[in-house]
Design brief:
alpha+beta; Chitinase A, domain 3; three-stranded antiparallel sheet; 3 strands; 19% strand; globular
Length: 83
């Protein structure tokens, strides 16, 4: 499922959106449907973790599916700010 589709699902179904600190990820649920994903917050935290390990880059799956570049813009700012 594309990130833009997650946003559509959330809006159309009045889904509950939860950020899970333990797994460093977000999930949404409505009725019997549950969707787990990375959002701007989780991706930013993972960038900080990668930098703390001394990694010199990161990989984000299916960047072209980002909704209006929300995640990629946020993580680019985080990478530059922390580099």
């Amino acid at each position: 499922m594309q990130f833009v589709q997650v946003g559509e699902f959330n809006r159309m179904n009045g889904a509950t959106v939860v950020y899970d600190v333990e797994s460093v990820s977000a999930y949404s649920f409505a009725g019997s449907t549950w969707i787990g994903y990375d959002d701007e917050i989780s991706a930013t935290i993972k960038i900080g973790f990668a930098q703390a390990l001394g990694l010199r880059g990161y990989f984000f799956w299916a960047l072209s599916y980002d909704d209006e570049w929300k995640i990629s813009t946020q993580v680019a700012r985080a990478w530059i700010r922390n580099d």
